[in-house]
Amino acid sequence: MGKFMSIRYKNLQPYIPGEQPKDRKYIKLNANETSCPPSPKVLEVLKSPRMKNLGVYTDPYSMELKEAVSSAYDINTQEVFVGNGSDEILGYIFLAFLENKKICYPDITYSFYNTLSLALNIDAEEIKLKKDFSVDLEQFIRTDRHVVLANPNAPTGYTLSISQIEEIVSANRDRLVVIDEAYVDYGNESCIPLIKKYDNLLVVHTMSKSRNLAGAHIGYCIGCEDLIKDVEAIKSVLNPFNLSDISMAVGTAAVKDTEYLRQTVQTVIGTREFVKDELNKLGFWVLDSRTNFVFVQHPWLNAEEYKNKLRGNGILTRHYKNPARIRNFLRITIGTKEEMMVLLEATRKILMELAA
User: Fold this and answer.
1) What is the pLDDT of residues 114-153, one digit of tens each?
2) Per CATH, domain 40-256 is 3.40.50.2300
3) How far is it, in rounded angstroms, from Cα 9 to Cα 7?
C-alpha cells in the first residue's frame, strides 16, 4: 500500500483476468469470451447516425436498455438495473448490501467474489463443493449468511435447478441471495421468475457471453423494486452516467435480437458437446459443463504442462494453481468449430509426444 491508500483496502487483492498477450496471434480460449460476432443489429447501430451525436450526456437512468430487458423477461423496468458488465453490478451489490456483513459462496467459484470480499471487509465463508464438484445444497440452505452463487458455476460448469435455488432463497427471507447467471443461456433455465415471489433475490446477467459483447462490457441485474432502488442509489453516488450512449444502444439491439441469441447459443452448445465427446475419447475427464467452456483433467497429462504446450501451439487456456483440488484441471473456452479442431489436433499431438 502507498502512504495515501485508504486503510480499508489493506487486504486488497486485485482480480487477475485471463492473459491478453500481444506477442503473436493466438486462439483465445482462456477468458470465456466468444468467437461469435455480435448481432447484425448491433453492427447496424454502430453505423447509424446516432453515433454522431455523442457530444451530450446519455440518459442516466438507461431507460431504453431497461425497457428492452424488461420486455425480454416480462418484468417491470423498476425491477431492472443496468451497468458496465456484471462485475460493476456485483460491486454495487456488495457495496449496497454486503459490506461488513457475513456472506458465503463456494470454495471453487468466480474469484471476483473473494476480491470484493477482501476489499470491503466482508466476512466471507467458502463452502466446499462436494467431491464431484457439485454445490453442497444443504449447506447453503442452512446457513444464516447472505449467499452468492454462480449458476452455472465457474470454472466447474455445474448447475443447480430452479427448484434448488428456490430452496435456498425461501429457507431464510432475512438474508440476501445473489445468483450470478453469466452462463445461463447455454442450456439452462433462469431463476428470474422467482423475483416475483421473493424480495431477497437478485439475479445478475452479463452480455459478455451469450450476446457476444465482452468488448462492450454490458450487464444487468433483476430483483424486486426495493432492491433495485438501493443499487441505483449506490450507482448515483459513484457513477451517475455509468453507461455510455454507445453501450446503451448496443445492449438494446443485442437484447432485442432474440433469434440471433438462439442461433449462436445453439452453435456453441453443439460445438461444446462435440468437444466433450472428442476429449473423452482421448482419455480426459470432462465435467458436465452447461456453459461456454469445459473443465478437463487427464490421468497422465499435467494440466499446467498441457496449458504451456497448447500455448506453444498458439492456443491460450486457463489454469488455476489454487485451490489444490483443481490444480490438475484446465478450463477451455468453446470457440468456433474450426478453432476447436485446432485445439483437438494439438492435444492429440501432445499426447502422442508424451507417450513416445
Assistant:
1) 999 999 989 999 999 999 999 999 999 999 999 999 999 9
2) no
3) 5
